[in-house]
Design brief:
Number of strands: 12
Structural class: alpha+beta
Shape: globular
Radius of gyration: 22 Å
Oligomer: single chain
Strand order of the largest sheet: 1-5
Order of helices and strands: HHHHHEHHEEHEEEHHEEEEHEEHHHHHH
Helix content: 25-40%
């Protein structure tokens, strides 16, 4: 697809001009949670640029290739001529120059690039890379932002493997992750180097960042509250310049100045404001879902024993709400490799929010749909559900 005539002229002019954003701090509170979530790299260019040199790889990536590994484009960051070209099917998605211009426009969700002329000088990432997607309103992977939605198309391993600084063995390990998965226990970045902590890698699904209010201890293994995990990921995984320490896992990273910790309260406030999306109209059978609620809370399935409403988790129901109530892997039929690499060695009960939106299920993604989820517990606990009860229970889960 190529641009022609007046449309081509407008498109080229729009892309040559670097769209400058006003200082995001001007006229705002010291830290704006949404801006942090969407645009703050915490100085993680020290990982993605200075260490991995991904700015070199970006020079050869076309928009088509970027979309193929799950990167998303924010339609609201595009000037009208570009939007018109997209709608007309006239955008050349195989031109690497277009990728650079999209970076100039700050239109690649979760990626912050600095471009001078035709050279990408630096690349950084933000929270939105993994925890936002788009509504595809202008095409597959191109549309309005959906903050908090897990990007289950994103192939972080494939993106990291573009680095010219990684060994062939490490690239091969990253490539095994696949779309929508990441292993936050495999390695850490200490400000200078990637340090391998657990091998072979054990990737888990990228979780939602919406519907977190009143849940508590929002990690698969309940290691700490939300800001604990934001700090862990921001410093050791994104590569942000900041401090993180946890004696339970023997991890201590100190960097000055700390660009992460002061922003955690604002980031938390924004995350807590993100509501779980309601299921689309007509996506479930309401009558069956009503019957399924009875199955869920009844003595046959007993799901409500652990998945306590309204958040559908029991993680805060222990004698001390500051200490998470967790479960041994053997209690719920879960594998134990990932939990053994965490600070707790156990799993928290998953809060059931917007299940319709983010398959596959379980921390390791081994259940491809909700029927597979019900089948897991049916086998493990010997529930003895009838075919009708199973169907009704699935419809209830789809309604959450």
């Amino acid at each position: 697809m190529r641009l022609r005539g007046a449309t081509a002229v407008l498109f080229v002019l729009a892309l040559i001009v670097v769209v400058s954003r006003p200082d995001r701090a001007a006229g705002q509170k010291p830290f704006d949670g949404r801006e942090i979530f969407r645009f703050d790299t915490f100085g993680d260019e020290q990982l993605w640029t200075d260490t991995l040199h991904l700015e070199q790889a970006i020079a050869t990536v076309t928009p088509a290739a970027a979309l193929a590994v799950g990167l998303k484009v924010d339609a609201e960051a595009l000037p009208p001529p570009v939007v018109a070209a997209l709608k007309a099917g006239q955008l050349n998605v195989n031109d690497v120059k277009v990728t650079r211009r999209l970076l100039e426009l700050n239109a690649v969700v979760g990626i912050v690039g600095k471009v001078t002329g035709d050279r990408v000088k630096s690349i950084g990432t933000t929270c939105a890379l993994c925890h936002s997607t788009v509504d595809n309103s202008l095409g597959t992977g191109i549309g309005r932002r959906l903050d908090g939605w897990p990007n289950r198309d994103l192939n972080v391993g494939a993106i990291a493997s573009l680095s010219p600084a990684l060994s062939a063995g490490l690239k091969a390990e990253f490539m095994k992750w696949g779309p929508g998965k990441y292993d936050p226990r495999h390695h850490v970045f200490n400000g200078n180097n990637l340090v391998i902590r657990h091998s072979p890698s054990f990737p888990v699904v990228i979780p939602p960042a919406y519907g977190l209010k009143d849940v508590g201890f929002e990690t698969f293994t309940g290691d700490g509250p939300i800001s604990y995990w934001n700090s862990y990921v921001g410093v050791t995984q994104m590569g942000g310049q900041g401090n993180f320490s946890d004696a339970r896992i023997g991890l201590f990273v100190t960097q000055k100045p700390d660009l992460v910790t002061p922003k955690l309260p604002a980031l938390l406030a924004y995350q807590l404001s993100l509501n779980a999306p309601a299921p689309p109209a007509g996506s479930f059978n309401a009558a069956a879902a009503a019957r399924g609620r009875t199955v869920f809370n009844g003595t046959t399935a007993r799901c409500g024993t652990c998945h306590e409403g309204p958040t559908y988790t029991d993680v805060l129901s222990g004698p001390n709400p500051r200490v998470p109530l967790l479960h041994e892997p053997s209690e719920v039929g879960a594998e134990s490799v990932y939990s053994s690499r965490s600070a707790t060695g156990k799993y928290r009960t998953t809060p059931l929010r917007a299940l319709w939106q983010h398959p596959p299920y379980f921390h390791d993604g081994h259940a491809r749909d909700l029927r597979a989820v019900v089948s897991h517990y049916e086998r493990f606990f010997g529930l003895g559900l009838s075919a009708q009860q199973t169907t009704d229970l699935i419809e209830f889960l789809k309604s959450l």
